[in-house]
Amino acid sequence: xxxxxxxxxxxxxxxxxxxxxxxxxxxxxxxxxxxxxxxxxxxxxxxxxxxxxxxxxxxxxxxxxxxxxxxxxxxxxxxxxxxxxxxxxxxxxxxxxxxxxxxxxxxxxxxx
Amino acid sequence: xxxxxxxxxxxxxxxxxxxxxxxxxxxxxxxxxxxxxxxxxxxxxxxxxxxxxxxxxxxxxxxxxxxxxxxxxxxxxxxxxxxxxxxxxxxxxxxxxxxxxxxxxxxxxxxxxxxxxxxxxxxxxxxxxxxxxxxxxxxxxxxxxxxxxxxxxxxxxxxxxxxxxxxxxxxxxxxxxxxxxxxxxxxxxxxxxxxxxxxxxxxxxxxxxxxxxxxxxxxxxxxxxxxxxxxxxxxxxxxxxxxxxxxxxxxxxxxxxxxxxxxxxxxxxxxxxxxxxxxxxxxxxxxxxxxxxxxxxxxxxxxxxxxxxxxxxxxxxxxxxxxxxxxxxxxxxxxxxxxxxxxxxxxxxxxxxxxxxxxxxxxxxxxxxxxxxxxxxxxxxxxxxxxxxxxxxxxxxxxxxxxxxxxxxxxxxxxxxxxxxxxxxxxxxxxxxxxxxxxxxxxxxxxxxxxxxxxxxxxxxxxxxxxxxxxxxxxxxxxxxxxxxxxxxxxxxxxxxxxxx
Lengths: 112, 501
Known about the structure:
B: two-stranded antiparallel sheet
């Protein structure tokens, strides 16, 4: 027998569903291998924001808090993933163009 | 003259043969909640309460305990007792208790009153009634025991408001909300068994021993005043489980599922206690790891679960991960509190050198390799007149609501990310345990009130940090770094004439 006792028809809309954010969305970003930052950071961002703005206005400010380590990152030595798939961001393309959707997880890591 | 009844007879007179069959409503209208979870009870009189508490005795014991407690509190206030605690840092543990745990006592009061009304068995109703009144008394005496500090220290005001709003307090709040929105038997398994039996010694003993070790007379006295109640609650928790398991074999898989869920929920909640034990007590009682080994591995895994095996009950889901995590969770949790200390209603700090050495000694497998370097780096920033904060908002686990700070069970250098998709929406979890709990009942957890997302939806006072802190009820000085804080400066000035120790 079932061990779940929810009433049939017990159903509520998800509290943080994509439509509530309109043209914005939530995106999480984690710096792999640098646990000075205890968790991935959560951001609310416009879907149409160019990657370059996202990086300059959001990621640089937050992760630059560990300045000596952040300064060592270059486009060449940084590996990016989107939901654990290889991912190549481009500064002039929008987050939506790059395939980023609501509640996606972006990770970056210094590889050399 | 009529003979006076003995304790056993009084208890029997109040809990046996007192039910009647309703004539003008149906039975299921009078007691509508005890069947939908699938639990089968054949004989409510098999409910055995080892304490056989009756109302007249209950009042007598409790009023005597209250008299003793309030005499101590008066004396403490009159004698400036707050100057005798080990260090001003200590009170941050008590702020966390008042903000996080005291409101749960009140919720427990409310829901045990619900159980006392809606369970068809009189013995169960009587036990729930006594516990409900206990919980109300605990709420009151905790507030009264801790309020003498409010006059002198920050962070002790507005605990009720903070409990409903502040990010780290959504961890205990959501735990209890999850329990009271379940059916009555799941609630009893969650609170009476998991919280009050399985994990109580890990939650309650560290706070109360911590108080005793650190010269906190009011909290210690409160602890003693609550101790006999707590042992009654523990006994009730065990009785609930055995009663359910003995009544019908069909109850076993249901109870096992609840144990799996509520062990993991309670264990995750305890990560705040772990951080408190290892980091907030200037005089340490024992490490989280030692407490976990004693109170969980020895007393529960080696003591209780072999006893439950004869009913077909297995140790709960996630036990192996919890054992691996005993080397890590206090450090990972406190580091997150340090990271986001600008938004907490207590102060955080870098442990002193001797405290760091204590952690090296207690956590030889992990501390120097993974955690000490972070404090050294943070100290370097302090030496350059800075303070390291993570100036943003963290990703939260959809179930336990703790920031996603926990690492893979076998790799303290790698954050554990788990996720599920339900009806085209993604959900993120800190562990296999939290993911499993979501996957069992996604309909429930899609409704989670996640503090970070609520801020981003504009529901928490405004988009800026000062606006959110204002909405939280956090006043300047409640939050941030301890060194240089109002509390630290006051502590130093009050003690400047004291002989050095």
